[in-house]
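--- STAGE predict ---
source: upstream dedup step, 1 unique chain passed
mode: sequence only
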Amino acid sequence: MVKEIITMDEVKIFTGNSNVPLAESIASYLNMKLSPAIVSRFPDGEIQVRCLESVRGKDVFIIQSTQTPAENLLELLIMIDAVRRASARSISAVIPFFGYARQDRKTKSREPISAKLVANLITTAGATRVISVDLHAAQIQGFFDIPTDNLTAVLILGKYFREKNLENPVVVAPDVGAVQRATAFAQEIPHATQAIFVKKRLSPEEVETSRLIGEVEGKNVILVDDAIHTGNTLISAAKEVLRRGAKEVYATATHGIFAQDSLKNLEESPIKEIVVTDTLPVLSRPNLPEKVKVLSVAPLIAEAIRRILMHESVSELFEKK
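--- STAGE serialize ---
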């Protein structure tokens, strides 16, 4: 529970439709309720937004992840515009999952940098601050010309696995891009060693795991990534470490995107447990496998909001005591 009660006279919290349960949990940790708003559709399908109480001179927080469909991003932009035109004092876009982040640089000719485009749209709409959780790439913070807080769920996920007291744990990065995150995660697990896969990507959906650096024989493997899309990378890595003598395999990521048939494939995979957070509405997914465990980032985001309002350090949330 947060330390101070923040009154609704000073702060307004709105949400779009992308993840209402998380928004309600964040407001609850702040001893508040979500401010009422209409976020629906006109008969022709266009997005209709109207805030149902005054925001003049208020600090406004809009909680909205921007996963597909694209309407989630449009809802965020239109809500920002609505409160800007209603004379809000500040507008913080709270984006637990920042979508359109995978194209954060040009790797081939005639490709967009979608993450920069979305950052421009959010800023132009009128946001004065962005709060997100585990951006796909840390440099995306630099795409914004406004203050941006990139929170991390590593401590939440690390605490969960630390309390499992796994014997001989080894934290494995399924690809080079996950090394920094895996290193931070390993620091939360006593006596954990590390390993890394060097992979060859055949296509955006297909990955060929090629080489493992590190020892996994006789150990309990924890695969660590920022997001689970199709799950193919994790499944391939799990099969490989088991082939090399690992005892059991667990997987964890902040964002459970679970595209296409990933949940079915993961359920049938040799991975014993898959731990994600509620930055996306995973619990509302039909036929969610029992092996999928969902932890909440609501306390983390709520405390960050409180610290921003009280002009306290946000980075202290992640510093070792």
